[in-house]
Structures
1.
Amino acid sequence: MKKFLRINMADKSAVFSAPPQGMELFGGRALIAKILNDEVDPKCDALGKENKLIFCVGLLADTPAPCSGRLSVGGKSPLTGTIKEANAGGTFAQYLFSLGLKAFIIEDQPADDDWHIVVLGEDSVEFLPAEKYLGMNNYELVACLQQEFGAKISIASIGCAGERGYRNSTVQITDPDGKPARAAARGGLGAVMGSKKIKAFVIKEKGNYRGEMLDKTAFAVRNKTYSKALLGNHVVGGLRALGTAVLVNVTNGMGILTTKNFSKGTFEHAEAISGEHIAELQGDRNGVMVHACHPGCIIKCSQIYNDADGNYLTSGFEYETIGLVGANCEIKDIDAIARIDRMCDDLGIDTMDAGCTIGVAMEAGEIPWGDGEAAIQLVQEMIDGTERGRILGNGTETAGKHFGVKRIPTAKGQALAAYDPRGLKGTGVTYATSPMGGDHTCGNVIGMPGDPADKEGKVELSRNAQVAMALMDSLGMCIFASFAFENPENIQLLAEMVGAKYGGDWDIEKLMGLGVQCLSLEKNFNRLAGFTEKDDRLPAFFSEEALPESGNVFDVPNEELDAALPF
Amino acid sequence: MKKFLRINMADKSAVFSAPPQGMELFGGRALIAKILNDEVDPKCDALGKENKLIFCVGLLADTPAPCSGRLSVGGKSPLTGTIKEANAGGTFAQYLFSLGLKAFIIEDQPADDDWHIVVLGEDSVEFLPAEKYLGMNNYELVACLQQEFGAKISIASIGCAGERGYRNSTVQITDPDGKPARAAARGGLGAVMGSKKIKAFVIKEKGNYRGEMLDKTAFAVRNKTYSKALLGNHVVGGLRALGTAVLVNVTNGMGILTTKNFSKGTFEHAEAISGEHIAELQGDRNGVMVHACHPGCIIKCSQIYNDADGNYLTSGFEYETIGLVGANCEIKDIDAIARIDRMCDDLGIDTMDAGCTIGVAMEAGEIPWGDGEAAIQLVQEMIDGTERGRILGNGTETAGKHFGVKRIPTAKGQALAAYDPRGLKGTGVTYATSPMGGDHTCGNVIGMPGDPADKEGKVELSRNAQVAMALMDSLGMCIFASFAFENPENIQLLAEMVGAKYGGDWDIEKLMGLGVQCLSLEKNFNRLAGFTEKDDRLPAFFSEEALPESGNVFDVPNEELDAALPF
């Protein structure tokens, strides 16, 4: 992965180059943090021409490391105002590095109103007119592009949400089946892509670059052991059988399943939205419960969810969506939730923020609690672009403020995930202090030893998790591949795998240093954007209102939060 | 003015106290800056319980100094996120100090949904239920309160805008005729009042406090000379004859009359919206062209604007409203503009931000340019609280972003005034660098010597104006009373007037030090709220798009802007 590509949308120029000196050990999320720190004014308008949109792969993307084919997308977020990296499965990362590209960077924006499809080749960039695709959502768009360029292409695209600049817009990525079901979902990067008037990136076929490795044998030996350890982890078994939806019954049992706009921690209809129920349903409907979101994934927690007629409805139907669209809105109809998942992927909005958005709309009395059909109608309004739909498309914080809701479950403007921070305080610390805003993928500590509702030690737990997740996001590996970290010997193996590819002596400390460096760059960007430790807080209601089942409040002291990421 | 009053809306307590030590020489805007720095977290939610809403009078409020009866209202702004002081005429300031009160501070907010009318007396505070007044706009509300408490009362109130939390909400103040036509307009402080569930403050009658003065004779002698000099200033004559609308033909002639959402500097129908035309119309309609907005005003630039039938329509109908609702929206029908002024006062929204909001809505194609009736309908939507109306009620920045408009004429989220910064660069520097966000009253340099479109020296010009305006706002004096500053001897007189009241030797430097101190406190608050010098900028289009008539762009270098307020 020798090349960088810079695409300027003002003059439609494209320049391939060697990566700048000293960038060899920056990949994925850390590479995005480095480029944004070096090149983008943290105070810029996220939808203005000064922002840059970066697509890149991780440090181990071009290796057989398990689950290492994640695509990182980054820029300044129009949702949070912070630095932002969102990563996704799908095929695009592998296609990208096969062109010999480590990263491509979209700069500036057109002065006119002409939209483009940008076709990337090994040494070429084509800017094709996109007029005929405007107004299309992702499923139709992808079908048309596959019609035009062939079924083997890989696509990163936006729906109408990104076109319209909804601050909760995603970049959707085609999965191994060619469906736009994987998303660089969080933080509104689809709106940044739309601000640059790019409807889709297309890679027509894989290139010839196959990666470089200093010591293939050393890598292969360690990779085999690491992968075996990962597959032996007990959580991976549950994920493989039921997808991430395995968590519904787990969190409900813990009293942290986000219910009725984070007012309760248990949902009386949890069983109806559980992974177990989905597996049963999909057994009858010929769905697929073991499915890889990207080539190279060995965990396979994705699935194909068919509707009652046995036809494809959606894929990548995750616990977070089910918890936030389902329990959080008291919707018990799993097919309605799946329908909303599909509609969100199609429109190109983050299902998590959308679930919390529907939750605050319900709290405001816009639609009744638990009414799946009314929720579908709200998403339809986002698709149709009604006045209310455009507000909802801007995410939970904007919608909550618009409707005058006091209890808005966000951190730095981004909706929290489906784990109530009062009963899972380590993840609460992550929500509050992550440079990304409320984001469980930056350091979720569910399943870690100790009482999850005891505040003691949770800052350290979150810090370690945040460093490890920043590392995985920089390697381009799925965060679930870190389950092998339960045994420190496996971390050492991973360190030596990095060494086998890039050279040098690597130990756990040096490996984790990649995560620390990433977080440090991200915090620096946010600081220059105006964020201070006072922004590293959860909404007050988590401290003031106890979870009714347990009486737990979020009580990690502010001084401890301030010390969470001392980089 | 010995007393402070703290009103806690959580437990409905009220505590009178002596001002804290060392606060003697803080008044008006500076007192607000001091209290907010001492007591309010700059990162707090402006509509949350941590914010405080402060009403106070200036240092010379209880003296015969000309135009010294301005009321300052302050808090953290929900519109800009900055510190905010908005001052207004009307009778409330005089009523307030007659109770012996220098300031009252509203703290916390109710846990329940009960709204209150807060009645202030010399040693008493009553919390009366406000249910029967909810949903009323200011004109109806004030009439009902006058019915209940008598015609002599003074009122500070909010309309439905403040009730609903519109981020462009005002606090309206009754004028000497008992009409709610004066506004602490900018920055959404009406929403802060609404967040504390206060519909109106009422003072039933003046109290017995008459002020204290160390050396009455020394004050009176200097005051007489100062007042005479002020009345002799040539600008004051124009203001008295035509109101601030005298500026329409002036700015149009200079090519800086904000036209068609700041895309032009001249309006072909300027004459139809000019002060000269208004004076002619009002002559026929028995309107009043020389009218004091508060007792003690000797300039009398306010007026009473009657409709075509000779009935009262509005008062305090300012150049800024006419420029931003009129020229900026290409509306030439002065009666339609006056109608919008009345509707805005009634609903309780800032006419300036509303004018720019309608401008961006027109740019987005929501209604046609120049269509006064359609603009009235948009304001009616804000009154009715339709989905679109609620977006518009949140001001220009929110509406512009919602509609996807690129050219949004705001600084720090607040709409600019009716002087295009490309042709009046000193005021442009003020827009960019004022701690209040885009605000001409913080340092307008129109009429100052030199070429207004030449960038040289404009930072110093703005700095001096900003210091002087911060001084006037702290004294409680109308900024127009600074016209006497054209002769430095008058500034010395004003310094000695402060000395005659408070003691000590005062010279120009010490007097201006009050302004510097105020700005320094405000900048400190904003810094802790996350603002940096990168926020001290105008929207890029002012640098990139030339005014068509003159070819002028805003070209004051960023490094100079960074040095504008080195306090």
2.
Amino acid sequence: MNAPTNPSFDVAHLGHVEIFTDRFEESLDFFTRVYGLKCSAQEGDSAYLRAWDDYEFHSMKLTRAERTGIGHVGYRVASPEALERRVAAIEASRFKSLGWVDGDRGHGRAYRFEDPFGHVFELYWETVRYEAPEADRSALKNLASRFTGNGVNTRRIDHVNLLGEDVSEFRDFAEVCLGSRVTEYIQLDNGRLGGVWFSVNNKTYDLVCTEERGKGHGRLHHVTYATDTREDILKAADIYLENGVFIETGPHKHAIQGSFFLYAWEPAGNRVELANAGARLILAPDWEPVCWTEADRKKGQAWGLKTIPTFHTHGTPPVEE
Amino acid sequence: MNAPTNPSFDVAHLGHVEIFTDRFEESLDFFTRVYGLKCSAQEGDSAYLRAWDDYEFHSMKLTRAERTGIGHVGYRVASPEALERRVAAIEASRFKSLGWVDGDRGHGRAYRFEDPFGHVFELYWETVRYEAPEADRSALKNLASRFTGNGVNTRRIDHVNLLGEDVSEFRDFAEVCLGSRVTEYIQLDNGRLGGVWFSVNNKTYDLVCTEERGKGHGRLHHVTYATDTREDILKAADIYLENGVFIETGPHKHAIQGSFFLYAWEPAGNRVELANAGARLILAPDWEPVCWTEADRKKGQAWGLKTIPTFHTHGTPPVEE
Amino acid sequence: MNAPTNPSFDVAHLGHVEIFTDRFEESLDFFTRVYGLKCSAQEGDSAYLRAWDDYEFHSMKLTRAERTGIGHVGYRVASPEALERRVAAIEASRFKSLGWVDGDRGHGRAYRFEDPFGHVFELYWETVRYEAPEADRSALKNLASRFTGNGVNTRRIDHVNLLGEDVSEFRDFAEVCLGSRVTEYIQLDNGRLGGVWFSVNNKTYDLVCTEERGKGHGRLHHVTYATDTREDILKAADIYLENGVFIETGPHKHAIQGSFFLYAWEPAGNRVELANAGARLILAPDWEPVCWTEADRKKGQAWGLKTIPTFHTHGTPPVEE
Amino acid sequence: MNAPTNPSFDVAHLGHVEIFTDRFEESLDFFTRVYGLKCSAQEGDSAYLRAWDDYEFHSMKLTRAERTGIGHVGYRVASPEALERRVAAIEASRFKSLGWVDGDRGHGRAYRFEDPFGHVFELYWETVRYEAPEADRSALKNLASRFTGNGVNTRRIDHVNLLGEDVSEFRDFAEVCLGSRVTEYIQLDNGRLGGVWFSVNNKTYDLVCTEERGKGHGRLHHVTYATDTREDILKAADIYLENGVFIETGPHKHAIQGSFFLYAWEPAGNRVELANAGARLILAPDWEPVCWTEADRKKGQAWGLKTIPTFHTHGTPPVEE
């Protein structure tokens, strides 16, 4: 791993992910009634969803499609000038530019580009802040919307994890195009990177790339929202159980990043995680990326839970083994 | 205070309370949507409500009335023989018998009697267990109904607090008629009892009598349901805030009994408390009642919060000062 | 399973367990510094330990020995008369009486008897209440000792799990000798009982017998203390990790009994569990024991965790396979 | 309030505060045994303390003095160049430069300056990372030191609150000298600012100035460390109670910033707060500062608790009224 990369802060934060589902109604029911997101709008083939503490119009765009997986990942930049700097950096790079798009219900024009494994990203400055209607306005004027305690009570979008055939290559992509810094990574004995965790701000991560072990390309490993507390995640496990949601693994604590996790599959098969909002912040400007070797990984998760096999194989869309 | 009273265990547990409301629709909306109770049935002027962990058909009977306050308090006995013993004890006492009633949606015939301050109690053996319909059946076969995490997520009925003009007299009533034991009490400097906490089982209390300081008679101070955790009660405070429910005091911890509390008024004005289910159990068969003097009480609640004035005056139905 | 057994309430509660250790100093360090127990006294080959909410002198007697496992299990009865009734019942039974012993630091004379698998039990009425010295006296007069938050912050003794070659036989023993009731059980496809959970009071269980699958006799499966919250157990996992304590499995939630658990091995190898104090109470006097079949058990723990192999083999003292 | 200020990110984070105490031994005992800080070194008249998740050598310098209050506030910058930029900005401003100092046990040379009310600040780049000795090394390689769960289990330094005679003036100071942005503020009816909350990064605040209502100058209102959870803060209240620590107010939730709080006075009288680490992040680059009017403030804290009078008068060092 190279010397630590100081983030440019040109990119402010993960804004939204677009998730494809081939069971739109069931997925929408899951995300709103069980997962606890609120629906800002439903338009065409998409529903625009957000958690109660997300300030933008949407943090998830759920789109009816013939397959599952990820549509695109949107990051908001820190200023119009930062957007210009980023676009210049991307266009000067070896990575694939897709050019400007007009924007969407939740934001203005956006610049699109692609990682080497087929995942589409976009950067935008102009956003649509969520304006709560009366029924969703919080009693506290510093909240974007009402705290309802609905379902598993997700609070804000947290991160997205993508599968890539060459994690080192993805690391270069994230550093060059997003100005991300690496906070932790897995170093395999074969010299390859097994996974890398990135952040553009003080959150400990907002983006992860782990190695694609199947024949997939451009696949999603999972998308994660944060809950307030670990206790929320324990309750979420009961709510999943009672609603017939498939729990893949957890609740438990990750050794890497130390976040408390629960993985489940939404009705269409996309993996969704819950993690706790109180996780570590990376405040050190010269944070040294933490290296996890295969020997470290053999100890399992923080408290010894072994990683289950599907975690290495299941992604969306599914592929034949 | 006399020597500790070993509970007879003839009375098994608090079964239900009947609450009167002069704003039936609003109260029902509060108790189901916000407070988190489930509605087993609505019939005539009453709704039969229960929390997800209550095994009987109902633990609250909410009844449309021209006033607020308490209708009656129902306790389930430990066996048919225990019921006979209790009835004999009540009939042999100086307290007022009201005789047998036919029962209700949630239980069989019941024996009614009255405390010296006009509160009606009943004892019953035959009960109607809640039989969850498919949509409310838990994935766990040892649960009475589905865990939903709905609203403030109340788990089970906990206790009821009644106002009485003479707390010593109420203590005799509870010991003689219910076979309750005293677990804690307030000894006023004037020689009177300020409040007494009673239990018929290993819960640390299920019944409280505190001194009526107004001109009321037969009034309710509050009814309480337990939540799983203190964190649930913190979230409840936010949910109350967002739903415009009047928070009277809390969240904080009682010095007496050590329970974590939050007091609010439901739309008709009846005071409802939340307390945490993980409170102390009284396992000692010879538990010595804990005496709190006025000097002790001057320290406030466990962490110093002062008792607010309405706590000493507000009861239902309200009375002119 | 026969008709539900109504508990006699002659036996009040689990009082203490005696644990043997062949690494006394290490075990004592674990139980006091990590597990959070307080030492009332150390005398001869034993240390007398208790949690902050245990009202008796000790709830664990830790004894230096040449082997690990359980010394005896002590239950406190509800009254002197209850003790007489119990002794008469035991002596009239087919189970083995060991007669009276003089008592111990923490209680008066006790009547000893043995289950068919070599575990020694005792019943006693006269107890020694813990009298906190000034430095351990709580600011709250209703607490037995000071809340310190020390280590994993155990609150009270919860239950003990013994291995028995014939669980049906143990069920008869517990019903006859202790007046226990069965709250849940595992029914194996071969017609045998796989495990039974018992309670003498409103706690959902205080004693468990699971089937001995090895060549052991009189072995301990585990002893459990309760913490206030599930969050305490999550923190405990970190404290175990940091102190090099072997975590066997968890934290997770049991399907049976619904308790949140964490299993670890203390330095001498005795399995110790943490469970949350806020678990379900069994208030129904006619609780119907819940039956879990092998088909049920195949679903794993509440949220799907599979039972690990050592859970079926490891007991203390260890035996050759 | 002017247009929102985009933070420069030149200043990375609050690094440490120096606290004066005229009861050094008692304060040190409080901060280490009760408040849960670890002592990196004791040297001369100072102890260097940090929480388990603070990556630097110290986040609190506790110094023996003839008075209480604040010594200085240290912020770490994002790079050597950022330090140059900041120094240039300060020297070009109307605020008072104190010049370079050699550094301290925990960091290299630092540039000092003073706010208009006598509080000393310093900026530094070169820091001393905490290198855990074996006994304090975490089992998790991404943690700066061992998680012990000691005392109230503080996790990291959170913020400092200073009293200033003119909050508007302090706002200019913080924006110019630290590059802070305002996240929330109190607008008094008299046109003055009652309090302003600042942040240099994604934390919702790290610095607060509230109006000095006494005759003090350069006084400290409080210093705050974050705990993992709100439950930690509830336990902290019990630990304070048992240790005779004066609880001033709380636990409760602030309307402003939404943090859960508990205020106490350490033995020398300095006010110390606990707040939960899971508080809101300010990810929006164009966050609009939230304005709280006197009318808003009349509603009390988030759940209605009224602000206690000492909160407006007590600061350190104390002043005659």
3.
Amino acid sequence: MTAIINIFLKEGVLDPQGKATHHALDSLGFSGVDDVRIGKQIIIKLESEDKIEAEKEVHKMCDTLLANTVIEDYTIEIR
Amino acid sequence: MTAIINIFLKEGVLDPQGKATHHALDSLGFSGVDDVRIGKQIIIKLESEDKIEAEKEVHKMCDTLLANTVIEDYTIEIR
């Protein structure tokens, strides 16, 4: 199975990388951009064939290593 | 409209961040992981309400600033 994890800064947490990118797009003449936010996407290939178990395992991975849950939210999609 | 851009290293390009994460997951006792790849997800809020035009604009943004097309591939989803 494949797990696709998207990790983003929580609403209200300043995203300096996004702000810098927004600024750079403006400088390059891309007007019409309201907001830019940048996150991580992690794709994990798992040996497990059990979707529910895989999701549980990936949740644990996120909480212990992949995401900083103080400032980040994450979503998991198992395929 | 909202553009969701996923940027990943091309197949065959070494992903040291993914390798390190894979190793860390192993050390933490998460066996059953075959592969880890880490990319960026960029979410851009656009003023434009024209889907086709928005997609064209975002393609240009990726080619000029957001992605390094020598070593990275990207996908665009417009919502």
